[in-house]
Specification:
This protein is an all-alpha fold and 206 residues long. Helices cover 84% and strands 0% of the residues. Helix 3 packs antiparallel against helix 8, helix 5 packs antiparallel against helix 6 and helix 7 packs across helix 8.
């Protein structure tokens, strides 16, 4: 730990100081023609930037709405639970499931089974529904175009490979895969095949 505390700041300093030199050195080992890599990098950079901005906004909005809702309903530990609800959006599906159990336990031990418990759970369900069906599409309409099946598969695959951090970075990693598939030159081949077919048709017509 002491070695890392010394080496990491030094490493970060030189990475920032000689950023241009290091990037040029790395580029010198890349092929001159790298349209695919450049296209993927530009796509990933734009999507990740939009994803981060959208997630920060989603965390603050969901956390603030949850805090006001929990306070108005008289739920204990409202600030802590609202903070957990806000950060739960970072891990799709799993985060919502975990925080739902936490909120239900707190509400149950505070009131037991009853209308107050039901009010909290209904209000939280409405928050989750609005988040998934209204807020997320508004925030990420320009950033991501991932099907829910793709997100679930990404969570399972990357979570199985790298555990918690794989689940945490599942969506950004899925956007990288999506960018690679999007930039893959299969469309060019299809267009060339269509051009060849149209040329053959024109020759036959002549």
């Amino acid at each position: 730990l002491l070695i890392l505390l010394v080496l990491i700041p030094v490493l970060v300093f030189f990475l920032l100081k000689d950023k241009v030199q290091l990037i040029n050195w790395f580029k010198s080992y890349l092929p001159a023609e790298r349209h695919l890599v450049s296209s993927v990098w530009a796509d990933v950079e734009a999507q990740i930037a939009n994803y981060v901005r959208g997630k920060v906004g989603e965390i603050f909005i969901v956390g603030a709405v949850s805090f006001v809702t929990f306070i108005s309903l008289g739920l204990q530990y409202s600030a802590l639970l609202a903070t957990m609800v806000g950060f739960s959006v970072l891990i799709p599906y799993i985060g919502a499931a975990v925080i739902t159990l936490t909120i239900s336990f707190v509400a149950y031990f505070q009131w037991g089974w009853g209308w107050s418990f039901g009010q909290v759970m209904i209000a939280y369900a409405i928050i989750q529904a609005l988040d998934g069906n209204v807020l997320v599409p508004l925030l990420f309409s320009e950033a991501l175009n991932l099907h829910p099946v793709a997100i679930i598969v990404a969570v399972l695959v990357f979570g199985g490979l790298w555990g918690f951090w794989g689940v945490f970075f599942a969506i950004p990693l899925a956007t990288v895969v999506q960018a690679v598939l999007r930039a893959w030159p299969r469309k060019i081949s299809q267009e060339e095949g269509q051009e060849d077919t149209s040329a053959e048709v024109d020759v036959e017509t002549v």
